[in-house]
Write a structure and sequence with these properties.
The complex is a heterodimer of chains A (493) and B (75). Chain A is α/β, with parallel strands linked by helices and 493 residues long. Helices cover 39% and strands 12% of the residues of chain A. Chain A has 16 helices and eleven strands. Chain B has one domain. Chain B starts with a helix and ends with a helix. The chains are: A alpha/beta (493), B mainly alpha (75). At the A-B interface, loops of A face loops of B.
């Protein structure tokens, strides 16, 4: 049975570990072997904690053997996107400017996972500072999509989604600022959840755009996403935007029926640029919902067309401010050339430390915030952001959730969009609105184009309606033939 | 300077008031506010006041109250 350890869901692993069918050490070792076998090709990980993970596993096994209490996730490995701080371990954001940086503290989500005895097995690749949609903007090189290795895994959490799809981790954490959990989940045929803004503490998540960032689960089943969210969603006084809202038992919510619920299908999401195979897979998924007794109705989100433009002003403005701290003085990279003066040291450090896309966004954001342009860009973008949020408020008066494609296309080829930032930005066209509106969204696998390229269905719901989102997702997962796509993932053949 | 030219403008002066507040902790974290000079470097710091990646500032409630009181008093 140990041959199958990388095909199990995290819930199954929890079960097998608790009854003693397998030890934590065996689970960790199996995943380390998978990584050694496959990651040279896929490049999901920036750092693998072989020694640390095995030591933790042995310590948990010993406690369990001695009859001492162990945590809820005891012995289950997890991969963590490398923009989430891990105490004493590398956290680089895939940027040269943070090369060698080991934070002296852990993110709140890591504290919670380690308190539950989950084991951080390694840190995964991403677009530098989470800026990108393909995991190609990484100073360490791109990650490959395990379904088709000449294609991108999506981004920016592409290292995490590819690792989960290829069995190099049972589940993972990503972060979602404009779709960075959901779009790569769609591309890799796994489940990706972006919680409501404020549901999960951002303490220890390296900031890209503070009003949009949210950490989310990347898993092979909807139940795993419910389990993981239940662990990481906890009020935290260190993040003043973290909600005090009650945390429900997400797993228990999955059992409830979906009959009589209403799903809205926004007509604006089915226009130009949507690949026919993606549209067909999503329409087929909607038919599954109808068979389950869910009402599927046409709705309109009229300000959808402005989402991408609004996002690239708000997100870049916040990024230009958040990234001002990287000056080579206290931590991270510093240009080795003898500087002429302090300003020269700053500029050389930033010129050499940041990649092209990060520089592009810092410049866009600085321009949007500069005196004389602030009203025309940032202020106007904030107003449009409110209109986009009001679109959703209105629609949710009539329906329980909104369904649409996660991405307009199937995974594109590596290199295909790297020279054209605009076409890259448009791959987030369906995911960005949820971040602007602060609402939760999930991507679940709903088909394969050409029998090998994953397609994702996106569901969006009102703030803190994660229970409903997970319930609808679980209903589709068990009713459809492709629901378990992420478990039947591509193997090495 | 000719008076006719300057008459086209109305002078408006704003004051930006800075004060060293006698709070227990620093503005954005729980570190003690340094009370005297000569303290050893890096003994009154934490990841927040060092501006490390991943940290979030939390505004000092005592400072906020003091600032609001000052603003009301000077109004």
């Amino acid at each position: 049975m140990t041959d199958d350890l990388d095909r199990l869901t995290a819930r199954q692993l929890v079960e097998n570990l608790s009854v003693g069918d397998v030890s934590a050490e065996e689970v960790v070792q199996h995943h380390l072997d998978r990584i050694a076998e496959r990651d040279g090709d896929l490049h999901c990980y920036l750092w693998v904690d072989e020694e640390g993970a095995l030591a933790r596993a042995r310590e948990i096994d010993a406690r369990r053997a001695a009859g001492e209490p162990v945590g809820e996730l005891a012995g289950v490995p997890i991969a963590v996107k490398d923009n989430i701080c891990t105490d004493g371990r590398p956290t680089t954001c895939a940027s040269r400017i943070l090369k060698g940086f080991h934070p002296p503290f852990s993110a709140h989500v890591i504290e919670l996972l380690e308190a539950a005895d989950a084991i951080v097995i390694g840190k995964t690749n991403l677009d530098e500072f989470a800026m990108g949609s393909s995991t190609e903007n990484s100073s360490a090189g791109a990650t490959r999509n395990p379904w088709a290795t000449d294609r991108a895994p999506g981004g920016s959490s592409g290292g995490s989604t590819a690792a989960v799809a290829a069995g190099l981790a049972p589940w993972a954490l990503g972060s979602d600022t404009g779709g960075s959990v959901r779009q790569p989940a769609s591309f890799c045929g796994v489940v990706g959840l972006k919680p409501t803004y404020g549901r999960v503490s951002r303490w220890g998540l390296v900031a890209f755009a503070s009003s949009l960032d949210q950490i989310g689960p990347i898993t092979r089943s909807v139940a795993d996403a419910a389990l993981l969210l239940g662990v990481i969603a906890k009020p935290d006084g260190r993040d003043s935007t973290c909600a005090h809202e009650h945390v429900p038992n997400y797993l228990a919510e999955l059992e409830k029926p979906v009959t009589g619920l209403r799903i809205g299908v926004p007509r604006e999401y089915f226009g130009e640029g949507l690949e026919p195979e993606v549209e067909k897979a999503v329409r087929d998924a909607l038919k599954v919902y109808q068979r389950l007794g869910v009402d599927v109705v046409d709705v309109s989100l009229p300000h959808t067309d402005y989402a991408v433009a609004t996002y690239y002003i708000v997100a870049t403005a916040e990024a230009s401010s958040n990234l001002a701290r990287y000056d080579g003085v206290q931590y991270g990279y510093r240009s080795p050339k003898p500087p002429e003066d302090i300003v020269d040291m700053y500029s050389r450090t930033r010129a050499e430390g940041f990649g092209e896309e990060v520089k592009r966004r810092i410049m866009l954001g600085t321009y949007a915030l500069s005196s004389g342009y602030y009203d025309a860009y940032y202020l106007k973008a904030q107003k449009v952001r409110m209109l986009i949020k009001q679109d959703f408020d209105r629609v949710f008066e009539d329906v329980d959730a909104v369904a649409c494609p996660t991405s307009p296309t199937v995974p594109f080829k590596l290199g295909e969009r790297t020279d054209d930032p605009l076409s890259m930005y448009l791959s987030d066209v369906f995911t960005i609105s949820a971040n602007l509106a602060g609402i939760p969204g999930i991507s679940i696998p709903c088909g394969l184009a050409d029998g090998r390229l994953p397609i994702g269905l996106q569901l969006l719901a009102p703030p803190f309606a994660e229970p409903l989102l997970l319930r609808l997702s679980a209903a589709y997962e068990s009713a459809s033939e492709v629901g378990a796509l992420s478990l039947n993932r591509t193997r090495d053949e | 300077m000719s008076d006719e030219k300057n008459n086209a403008y109305e002078v408006v002066i704003g004051l930006e008031v800075h004060a060293h507040l006698w709070t227990k902790s620093k503005m954005f974290c729980a570190c003690p506010r340094p009370r005297r000079s000569g303290l050893k470097p890096n003994t009154q710091t934490c990841p927040v006041c060092l501006g490390m990646p991943g940290v979030l500032p939390l505004i000092n409630e005592e400072a906020l109250t003091a600032a609001l009181e000052a603003a009301l008093a000077l109004k």
